[in-house]
Design a protein that fits this description.
Blueprint (H helix, E strand, L loop, with lengths): L7 H7 L3 H14 L3 H16 L5 H10 L3 H13 L3 H11 L2 H13 L4 H9 L3 H10 L9 H25 L10 H15 L4 H16 L7 H49 L1
Helix pairs in contact: 2-10, 3-5, 3-10, 3-11, 4-10, 5-6, 12-13
Membrane topology: Multi-pass membrane protein
Main location: membrane
Subcellular location: Cell membrane
Length: 272
């Protein structure tokens, strides 16, 4: 009697290196506490799309293909106003410019992968798991489990986002407009953002992005978001650079003081 053949998904899973499988599960577990916030934001986006001029099939198609909540919300008023399609594409591109920066930051970590795998990986990138990934892996280059860890978080985020967004689309009629769902979604993301502040550089980046977002709030095409992201990255990099220079200065002072103490001792030894 022959044993049943494993399914294609199971064969694919076992074909992955053990280190990547373990890291994938670790990524899912680490990202799990953020899933309620992702669910809230996806639900809000789904309700907003369903209550706009889009039909239910159009809204579901958009959430599956676009997979970018801020861009999806940004273009809804343009659809409602009947503006040309090129303005919709341009607005979405401006809102998503931060992912160009994210991709540039990820490139040193996955430069060894072929182009099609890097493209696929970038297509599933997102704000939260990008931050979590960069916190865990600070050294560029290949490391066993690095890709699996990213995919664990990315696919958990993708699955929760799509499920919550489609639920919001299908059940939008049950949510009155007076509930203020957009504010609820924003409030749900604030604890997740606070949890990522674990260093002085991150805190400076958050403060800089908040100030820039407020100052540039009235810019068209949501450009204030792009300015805030660029400013946050610049502030974080500047803080890291200043911290590194301060560390080097302390090391040089310690070495200088050690040599200063050692010199008289060496002179006394020569006289003896």
């Amino acid at each position: 009697m022959t044993s049943p053949q494993p399914s294609a998904w199971l064969r694919l899973w076992h074909g992955i290196a053990p280190a990547e499988r373990t890291a994938f599960i670790d990524g899912v577990r680490f990202f799990a506490p953020s899933l309620p916030a992702v669910f809230s934001w996806g639900l809000v986006t789904g309700v907003a799309m369903s209550k706009s001029v889009m039909t239910v099939p159009e809204a579901i198609g958009m959430t599956l293909l676009v997979y970018a909540g801020s861009a999806q919300l940004a273009v809804l008023p343009l659809f409602a106003a009947g503006l040309p399609l090129w303005t919709v594409w341009l607005t979405a591109a401006f809102v998503n410019l931060r992912f160009v920066i994210f991709s540039a930051a990820l490139q040193p970590h996955f430069s060894y992968l072929p182009l099609w795998r890097r493209t696929l990986l970038g297509s599933f990138n997102g704000d939260l798991h990008f931050v979590y990934f960069m916190q865990r892996y600070s050294t560029p280059g290949y490391e066993p489990g690095k890709e699996g860890y990213f995919w664990g978080m990315a696919l958990a985020n993708f699955a929760m986002w799509q499920a919550s967004s489609i639920i919001g689309i299908l059940l939008a009629s049950l949510f009155p407009d007076s509930w203020g769902l957009a504010l609820a979604g924003t409030m749900a993301l604030i604890p997740v953002m606070i949890a990522t502040i674990n260093s002085r550089s991150t805190l400076l980046a958050v403060v800089a992005s908040a100030i820039l977002a407020l100052l540039c709030f009235d810019l068209p095409y949501r450009l204030g978001l792009v300015v805030a992201v660029v400013g946050a990255i610049a502030a974080g990099m500047a803080s890291d650079d200043l911290a590194a220079r301060a560390t080097l200065r302390r090391i040089h002072r310690r070495k200088s003081s050690t040599r200063a103490v050692a010199a008289p001792q060496a002179g006394q030894g020569d006289q003896a």
